[in-house]
Amino acid sequence: MSHPKYRADIDGLRSIAVLSVVAFHAAPDWIHGGFIGVDIFFVISGFLISTILFSNLENDTFSLREFYARRIKRIFPSLLLVLMATYAIGWWVLLAGEFAQLGKHITAGALFVSNLALWSEAGYFDIAAETKPLLHLWSLGIEEQFYILWPVLLVLAWKRKYNLLTLTLAFGAISMALNLKGIAKNPTATFYSPQTRFWELLCGSLLAWASLHPHPKAVALKSTLDRWIHRMLYRSLPPGNGTALANALALAGAALLALGFLKIRAELGFPGKWAIAPVLGAVMIISAGQGAWFNRVVLSSRLAVWFGLISFPLYLWHWPLLSFARIMEEGLPRADIRLGAVLLAIVFAWLTYRLVERPIRFGTHNRLTIATLCVLMAGMGALGYYTFRQNGLSFRMQSQISQALLDQTVEPSNTQLSDGSCEKLLNFAMGPGAVCLTNSAAPEVLVVGDSHAMALNSAALLGKVPIKTMLIGNHGCLPLMGYSVQDGKLNKGCNALPDQAFKVLDRYPSIHTVALATRGPLYFSGHGYGIEGPSTYSIFALDGTKASQTDMFRKGYSQFVKELLLRKKDVVFVIDPPELGEDPKGCLFRRPVSILEKPVSTCTQDKSKVVARQAVYRDLVEQIRSDNPALRVYDPIDFFCDAARCYGLRDKKLLYWDDNHIAAWASELVLDDMRKRKFLP
């Protein structure tokens, strides 16, 4: 198969893409939109690979076998090395649960389905994502899924004499529409789904087609624009060589990328419409050609090309090193540690390119090489799966950390996501993303709220407290009437929660008590707590009315409580327990390996700090009770605090399984107390 002529400026564009991603991961406050480098990669990849596909199909020189063999030699060597190194580092650094998750992600990476595996977990921009050393393989998953499908589709279309341009336009338009529609409904799915990302690669494919098949009208238009731009800038006659238009395209594309790096934020809703900026910017720069000043002087410089050549191994190496540093430091590492990780990644990337990638990629093309790479990748995937199935091979740490301690830091199973119990016992189902859990075919208590309601309900669901409950909720949602919650600019659709609650109460008359439990200050203060940093959550009115965050919190909750009371239900508002603000693992033991020596945390905080954090929230709860005198308010703070301090440990047991969710044991204490004090049946 023939390949397009090498363009140094495209390697330079790769350097911008990879360095922006590395900078974002190392210092997100410095370059907020650095993650759009992945979108630049998608366009470059779509352009180069589709150029190969289109030209070889037309010349009758295309071979699927040779195409996939070249992909294996291009991708597998560096990826295998990084997967092996990540597993080896994880063996010494990660706890059992963490190592099990790494095993799962290694298997997903080896199968090129990391995006699908991560889809069901926390979002790319969540705090939990930062402790997943192979998180970045989601993009490789999307790219390879595209190249599994796209060449086969083009071959079939070519044999049936279909128009490949029409095919590319149609699939690109469908993918773009799914992206724009999905970002408002399910941003995590839209971020990771191949069908909502393929349009970015197909934009590169369209550019490839246009480059191979210049239409006379397009050529004439480019000539006209070139002359017009030249006359706008210079007094001399236009030379007619296209330089003015090329320079304008490249500079405009660079400006779009710079705007994206500085202005695009995760909370704006990405990809969505915001992905157009990096995609269009990359298309404009590539279409400008090698002769444009920006491409010739900046992108084709020796340093830019060098980073472009090592861009793939650098992308693979940088995130595991930064993620392991964060895990070992149990939070954001110092700037010098992050800089050291980046420099180490650059060194590893150069060595990988020189000693592994280049010799195998450009070496002798033979079946033994391909077979060996495939066997090694299959073996790596199998090892990851075995590690996952064996719960992270906990014997590695038994001499240092007991499994009993580790078990306390794990999310209680089947308490934070729907498990089918509502469908099985009650024939009731919630919409996508919502959570429904029950332990009885005749529930007596309905628990409504966010993930803190799920944590509160965990002891009942696990059979530790004899309460017949049904929970309906959504992560990051307040049950407000007339209002909803947005994460950044994304409406989470929380206004559906009260409607679902009313449907449940109408359908199941056995429910006499409704318990409301959610986080408080997170939603209206703009701040998380402790290790969380700033909060992107806020409340907004469905009718567009402007009001303060606290007013909307009070009015939305008060209206919901009022409607529940009108239905003759006993309504209990459970005040949120104090947030811990630190990783509870640090309260029990030191990590197996750390960069800086740290003592075991005392797992306590001044009560005055908690009081200050909850002051406005508690005033709002009192106002909600004032609006609804029949509302009962339960305060669990005495289980977590004494007169002076608040604790994450009690009787040598953790009260929390992460920095803000209470453990099943704490749930048991609280629910038992609520029963004794007649708040619950």
Give a structural overview.
This protein is α/β, with parallel strands linked by helices and 681 residues long. 57% of the residues lie in helices and 7% in strands. It has 25 helices and 13 strands. It has helices at 8-26, 37-58, 64-93, 96-110, 114-119, 137-159, 164-185, 187-192, 198-212, 216-233, 243-263, 276-288, 293-299, 302-309, 311-329, 335-361, 367-389, 403-407, 421-426, 451-461, 496-507, 521-525, 549-566, 607-627, 664-676, and strands at residues 435-438, 445-449, 469-473, 483-487, 490-491, 513-517, 537-541, 570-574, 604-606, 632-634, 645-647, 649-650, 653-654. It has a six-stranded mixed beta sheet, sandwiched between helices. A three-stranded antiparallel beta sheet has the order 5-4-7. Strands 9-11 form a two-stranded antiparallel ribbon. A hairpin with a 2-residue loop joins strand 12 and strand 13 (653-654). The chain is globular. The chain starts with 7 loop residues before the first helix and ends in a 5-residue tail after the last helix.
What does this entry show, briefly?
It is built from 25 helices and 13 strands. The chain is α/β, with parallel strands linked by helices and 681 residues long.
Number of helices: 25
Net shape: globular
Characterize the main sheet: 6 strands, mixed
Mean pLDDT: 92
Structural class: alpha/beta
Residue fraction in strands: 5-15%
What is the count of β-strands? 13
- Note poorly predicted spans: none
- Numbering strands along the chain, what is their spatial order in the largest sheet? 1-3-2-6-8-10
How is the quaternary structure best described? single chain
